[in-house]
Amino acid sequence: MNTAVAKTKGVEVSTELMDDIFADAGAGSSFAAEEMTMPFIRLAQQMSPQVNKNKPEYIKGIGAGDIFNNLTGEYWDGAEGMRVIACASVTKYTEWVPMGDGGGFVGEVAPDDPVIKQAVREGNKELLPNGNEMVKADNYYVLYETSDGAWNPAVLDMKITALKVSRRWKSQINLQTAKHPKTGQVVKLPIFANIWRVSSVEETNKNDQSYANYSVQLEGRIKETDLYQQAKALFVSVQDGEVKAAAPEEKASTPDTSGDKSAEVKDDEIPF
């Protein structure tokens, strides 16, 4: 009997069993899109339930500033970060009841709804005429690299203080070009052609509150055709409306910085 072992997600199994598993690949694990939830990639803050042992969302070993998957519980050291492919970007507007009035998600606001232009800024908050808060978020549909080298889909949403990072990321994406080796033609690359490293850095607002924010750096071009096609397929699914992010579970991933003008996006402050 073959006694060699393979290690998958920290568990050693015999290669004989792995052969059986691979022979049954996908059996019973395919579901309709509406039956599944697209996970979110989030930043853990000091007050996040993921770092509190008494909360059901607690993730063992995680610390403030680390990046985590809210569905699988996977997490990455914030300083080292994780590798992602940004496949599509969609801007969302959501309405929230202020925390002082009990808080809670009201619903999405259509991008062309005139109420968006009626919102009034107070500090880093956008207040609607009815007194509720409007939160803008840039949702990046990404493929992220797992510990075993696979690339899985998720949504990385940037809002509140992270919007300044998002604007710089979009600018970086927009600048990526390539020269065809045969024709010499230079074209702008599709959004899904590059791999990025997303990590976290500590920032402080004028109230001396520290919080984690994103940092994004270009790693390089995708080199494998299969991975490129996988990223392109996610882009097409988002464009066709087949893939959508679920309603947000929480309004913000940063401390309340009401009245904090330092949170109002200064591009030169971005750790890029």
Can you walk through the features of this model?
The protein has helices at 15-23, 115-118, 163-174, 225-239, and strands spanning 5-8, 11-14, 40-43, 67-69, 75-76, 82-96, 105-109, 120-122, 125-127, 133-145, 151-159, 177-179, 186-188, 194-204, 210-221. The protein has one domain (33-269). Strand 4 (67-69) and strand 5 form a beta hairpin. The chain is of the alpha+beta class and 272 residues long. The strands form three sheets. Strands 3, 4, 5, 6, 7, 8, 9, 10, 11, 14 and 15 form an eleven-stranded mixed β-sheet that branches. Strands 1-2 form a two-stranded antiparallel ribbon. The chain contains four helices and 15 strands. 15% of the residues lie in helices and 35% in strands.
Structural class: alpha+beta
The secondary-structure element order is: EEHEEEEEHEEEEHEEEEH
Strand content: 25-35%
How many angstroms separate the termini? 53 Å
The percentage helix is: 10-25%
Number of domain modules: 1
SS summary, helix count: 4
**CA-based shape:** globular
Mean pLDDT: 83
The tally of strands reads 15
| Uncertain segments | 1-10, 252-272
Radius of gyration: 21 Å
> Biggest sheet: strands, sense, closure?
11 strands, mixed
Write a brief structural summary.
The chain is α+β, with helices and mostly antiparallel strands. Helix content is 15%, strand content 35%.
Fold blueprint:
Blueprint: E1 5-8, E2 11-14, H1 15-23, E3 40-43, E4 67-69, E5 75-76, E6 82-96, E7 105-109, H2 115-118, E8 120-122, E9 125-127, E10 133-145, E11 151-159, H3 163-174, E12 177-179, E13 186-188, E14 194-204, E15 210-221, H4 225-239
